[in-house]
Design brief:
The chain is α/β, with parallel strands linked by helices. It is about 30% helix and about 20% strand. It contains 7 helices and 9 strands; from the N terminus they run αββαβααββαβαβββα. The protein has helices at about 5-10, 30-40, 55-60, 65-75, 110-120, 140-145, 180-189; strands at about 15, 20-25, 50, 80-85, 100-105, 120-125, 150, 160-165, 170-175. Strands 7-1-2-6-3-5-4-8-9 form a 9-stranded mixed beta sheet. The termini are far apart.
Length: about 190
């Protein structure tokens, strides 16, 4: 079975991202999301970030404005997660009934290809049990997590992505590689 088929069948795959190893599943299947939640032992009230392959997918699920597009142009794909106002395509179960959604864009060409071939974005979260250290190798994932498939590779970073709340003055709520000064400088241009 290939990765796209696994995802289409509600499977969960582990994939080395531009930051850390991540776990992903299709974002439009409650069965797949429940499978991911079970693997991570993630609390019900904690929703998953969504990873898109391109700007078009991002604009289908969230509202963007000129400032958000500046951030997308400068930092995406890259180690940044944007908190954006969701569109109606995001059903309540997808994001714990919030009016926002957290979005990243895939950097890796193979991962972009998987998401494009799947036809929908994926939930993407760090490869670990909730509250535990992130797995840094495929061997560690095999030992600690029961995923359906693992893409063997090496994550490109050690820090998680910076999270920017675009609904609240473009404030960083989790610091990663991208700093608040970098965000402010981009918005002011």
């Amino acid at each position: 079975m290939d990765f796209v088929t696994c995802l289409k069948n509600d499977g969960v795959i582990a994939y080395p991202t531009d930051t850390v190893y991540g776990l992903c599943c299709r974002f439009d299947s409650i069965k797949a999301m429940e499978h991911l939640r079970e693997i991570k032992n993630r609390p019900l009230e904690k929703s998953f970030p969504i990873m898109v392959a391109n700007v078009e997918q991002l604009e289908k699920i969230a509202y963007v404005n000129e400032d958000i597009l500046k951030l997308v142009d400068r930092f995406m794909p890259g180690p940044i997660t944007l908190i954006l106002k969701k569109k109606d395509i995001i059903e309540p179960w997808m994001n714990d009934n919030r009016d926002t959604v957290a979005i990243r864009m895939a950097c890796d060409e193979k991962l972009k290809s998987i998401i494009n071939d799947l036809g929908v974005p994926v939930f993407m979260t760090s490869a670990n049990k909730s509250g535990e250290k992130v797995c840094i190798s495929s061997d560690e994932i095999k030992e600690k997590l029961s995923v359906d498939m693992i893409y063997v590779g090496k994550p490109k970073g050690e820090l998680a992505s910076s999270i920017v709340d675009c609904t609240n003055n473009y404030r960083i709520i989790r610091l990663g590689v991208i700093t608040q000064d970098m965000i402010d400088e981009t918005i002011k241009k």
